[in-house]
Amino acid sequence: MNFDFSEEQQMVRDSIARFVQDDYDWDTRKAIVGSERGMSRDNWQLFAELGWLSIPFAEVHGGFGGNIVDLSVVMEELGKGLVVEPYFPTVVLFGGLIKRAGSEAQQAEWLPRIIGGEVLGAFAYVERQSRFALNDCQTTATRSGDGLVLNGEKVVVFNGEQADNLVVMARTSGGQSDHEGLSLFIVDASAAGVEKMSYPMMDGQRVANITLKDVAVSAECLLGEEGGALAVVDAMTDEAIIALAAEAVGIMSVLNAKTLEYTKTREQFGVAIGSYQALQHRLVDTMMAYEQSKSLLFRALCEYKQDPAMAAETIHALKVLIDRNGKHVFGEAIQMHGGMGMTDELDIGHYAKRLMMINTTFGDATYHRNRYIETAYAA
Amino acid sequence: MDTAYSPEDLAFRDEVRGFFEEAYTPELRARMRSNHKEGFEEWQRKLYEKGWVAPNWPAEFGGTGWTATQKYIYETERSLAGIPNVIPFGLVMVANVIMAYGTDEQKEYFLPRILKSEDWWCQGYSEPGSGSDLASLKTKAERDGDDFIINGAKIWTTYAQYADWIFCLVRTDNSGKKQEGITFILIDMKTEGIKVNPIISIDNHHSLNEVEFNNVRVPAKNVVGEIGKGWTVAKALLAHERTGIAGVADVKRAVRVIKEVAAKEENGGQRLMDDPGFQQRLADIEVELMALEFTELRTLATQAAGGFPGPESSLLKIKGTELQQATQEMLMEIAAYYQGVLPVDLDPDALGHEFATDARLSYMYGRAATIYGGSNEVQKNIIAKYVLGLE
Q1: Which one in A97, B267, B286, B289 has a CA-CA gap of 20 to 30 Å to A294?
Q2: Complete DSSP assignment for B324-381
């Protein structure tokens, strides 16, 4: 039994931490968020050169061949810096689906381009009515000659504004909520019939609603087995939830550290506010919330590494705990920063807003507690 | 980052499981419930003969020399089998102090006797006027030649009525800061001048006592560590105590019991276990528990690398006792009206319910868990000061 990180993992951690410290200070990030693209292509190239984009991909495609622990190290450090460049949508979601479902040819075509920073990707899965139910899908793919035609609408597509290519989930058969009959397609974001309506999110992300109107795709664009997408998406989602939890743990550590530091220096009534027991006990509570979240993340990592199926219950529990503890940690961070915690100028609120988006992505605490109950308490 | 069991670990798990099945018989279990002292001594001797009574001792003193993973497996299997922990006062608490601070003579005399459960130990820390503010203790030890003469009182002394020995914090000096001048000393309970007064607790049982000392003569060679340095010794012991108090494995067992009994309990024709509100509360407990199990493993791994548990044991204590109480509360609710049944000689069939008395006992006595070993509020003070650096 050990909870140590390998030397390689430590090196990746240090390299991202150095980037955040030297090249991603608060003003720089603010400027990037406010820029036309909402991200920096230069940074993206740097991520490629430093090998971060290659972490979860096999060596045969030029990847690092990393496991879930390697990926979580990257996500935790990107979280600490609130890095807005679309690592999660491109590498974890778009790349995660291609590495799982792609044919040899598709992997050889796409993975080296993701790793090289040449392509930005997105996964279009949420629909107006679907909320967190991945199987609830009205977008259709119907046969037309040698290819297929996609029709429908996807909403809140992460990185939808900047993505060059999308993986779109569409129904090739079955009713709206059937678990069978879903298929994935790799779609060029500039193809005829693809319309984007972009908008910013509170955590600095650029997303889009994407309308597909008679979008013609060739049969080669089918990613994985026709009708069998849900299993692939579920498997990718498990990895994505662990990655998000790692990002959240990184954010919580920053919020706790900043808040602790603030209570030691901020004086009221002639003493540091951190000298009051009412605040001290609450700071202990947020520390415990962080440590417990980290422990459950470690549990998920260890189990997933052994066998992803072994981590199924833990992943639901993790999403519940990250949501609950994340809200607790950022709530206290804002409260203890007082009026300053309310400002847009201070970074505290921005960390809070990213945690809120993490909480809702792929299902919130209520959703995952119900999934946990279904899995663990089946009569 | 790896917690996978090796083939050796799996073989060890089977060995532990097999031993518990064979050695922890229903008859022994009944004896441990009806007659605490003899029952526990019998069980602890069985463990001693197997060589497993002291998983946390170093091998040189008769411990198991197990890895952190083996200790975890052992704890998990013990809890799965429904076996209570060993009585901690000797095997966990004073033994660790004697190993770290004791003289060779103390080690040679006491440690083998503790291993064999030849002495029953109790803990003399709290006093009628000193609870959370432990360092304010007043029990006085005055030097008289080779001896100390002790006067004062200790309180909340669990199982003092059974005890052969008590380890005590006494005041040998009043001149400096209150933490200075405290001495850790071992006292034979048969010494003249010791009186044990029972305290009946909220569970209607007698486990707690007040222990009075009237001119009790104790040889100075019974001091552990230096005279006047007892506070250092006391804190080290409390860290050991707290790690055990978390009781993660036992909370896991409690959750299993909750699921079993809630599946049998019906409310208007619906199983309680199928009630969404009930399910959600249990799920909330399990989520925290799954995390705490790994918090404990992280602590075990740290200890395996470096010795004494640190302030993180306070975190385990707080979360562990909160979860204990949460499970106890659910068991009381499951028992509904029967949660109030006082100990009677009726068998469950005549009474109409199985586990209600257990639920009440553990719920009522369980209130103590957030108080003893340093109240949870004191634990937060400790974390605030030593981990967060808040003054």
Answers
A1: A97
A2: HHHHHHHHHHHHGGGGGPPP-S--HHHHT-SSHHHHHHHHHHHGGGGTTTS-HHHHHH
